[in-house]
Amino acid sequence: MRAPMAAAVLLAAILALSTCAATATATAAAEADRIASLPGQPPVNFSMYSGYVTVDAAAGRALFYWLIEAAAVPAESAPLVLWLNGGPGCSSVGYGASEELGAFRINSDGRTLFLNPYPWNKVANMLFLDSPAGVGYSYSNTTSDLFTAGDNKTAHDSYTFLVNWLERFPRYKYRDFYITGESYGGHYVPQLSQLVYRNNKGIEKPILNFKGFMVGNAVIDDYHDYIGTFEYWWTHGLISDETYQKLRLACEFDSSEHPSKACNKINEISDAEIGAIDAYSIYTPTCKKTSFLKRRLIKGRTPWLPRGYDPCTEKYSTKYYNLPEVQKALHANVTGIPYAWTTCSDPLFEHWKDSPRSMLPIYHELITAGIRIWVFSGDADSVVPLTATRYSIDALYLPTLTNWYPWYDDEEVGGWCQVYKGLTLVTIRGAGHEVPLHRPRQGLKLFEHFLKDKPMPKPVDSIQSF
Length: 466
Description:
- The chain is α/β, with parallel strands linked by helices.
- The protein has a single domain (about 20-225, about 310-460), classed as 3-Layer(aba) Sandwich (Rossmann fold), CATH 3.40.50.1820.
- It has helices spanning about 1-30, 95-100, 150-170, 185-200, 220-235, 240-250, 260-275, 290-295, 310-320, 325-330, 345-350, 360-370, 385-395, 435-440, 440-450, and strands at about 50-55, 60-70, 80-85, 105, 115, 125-130, 140, 175-180, 210-215, 370-380, 400-410, 410-420, 425-430.
- The strands form 2 sheets. Strands 1, 2, 3, 6, 7, 8, 9, 10, 11, 12 and 13 form an 11-stranded mixed beta sheet that branches.
- A hairpin with a 2-residue loop joins strand 12 (about 410-420) and strand 13 (about 425-430).
- The protein is globular.
- The protein starts with a helix and ends in a 14-residue tail after the last helix.
């Protein structure tokens, strides 16, 4: 019996050494991605990593990520949260990380950074992913990938990224994991969530310990989104009675990503009636330093190509992320991408392929599975407005657990909340399309409550009716 026992001990030792070697390699790979410091960056008390993860070696597709670890709570125990911006074709680094919920904002010189006072890495490890290939610094060596992207490939590439990324960062395996995003991320987030959930089935302890997802001002269901969007434009005085009726006749049954010629034509009329406002935040001024807004509006492209609250901010990020010293610090553009960094990729947007008309079946599946789902909406956004979100959620026919009520922040109404069986809806008063940009403190409070699965706060003292 001694010989087999000795062999077993030897085998166990070999396996242990092999595991240690693999962990050491993974740690070394992660350490190579560590960001020492970004150009123009103020001092910080947290770690950051960025770089590439290959998702298709044959095609040469690699996705760029930026991990900003938790600051105010121990990074070792804080959850891992993935953030996805939409477009399709827009950068999570350029939007989410740089003007919404990331640790820094970019100064007007386009060369220096300042601290965001309400970053989401205060309570979680934030992972920003530029997806699909062709967005931001993410790339493919197969040119056709830039013209054949769609929802399905994006979801599968993002899943492959996560699995491969965890091999580089094994300390995040089995950690509580959430997926978040906004706008056309309303497609990305539930589709990736479904893929993670299905691949976790039958695994007692999955490495992607998926707990739930949250989306904001999200494209959910084309039919109900269209109805709610046109209603918002009309009730907020942005379009005429006649145009409102024509939009409903021409567009209601169209696909949002592949609208008919008739729908595009009446959208051009609605664009002209709406005028040169920031449709993503209808009560705030536009930037006068760039013609970007005008260029986007005259394309007549409705629906949902997200852009920042301040077009100037986009100008600053475009300058910053094209600086060679910034790319070097981020370990980005290591292959010499033959085009400049941009916030959104027009070729991807204009050639987008598969785009299901509704995410509602995925919502039903994941609600039944007990996955936590929160949906939030800034009520000053006319691009994916609150009315569209409410119509889409109503189409789920969920029982209400807590009726509509105002939630409070610093003794002021921060928005409204309704808790359904399987889903929580939160509005943020006065916020535009990018909630953490317009209402950063309220956005952080929302995020904290989502992670705790705790409904938004009601007033401590009862409010007397008059």
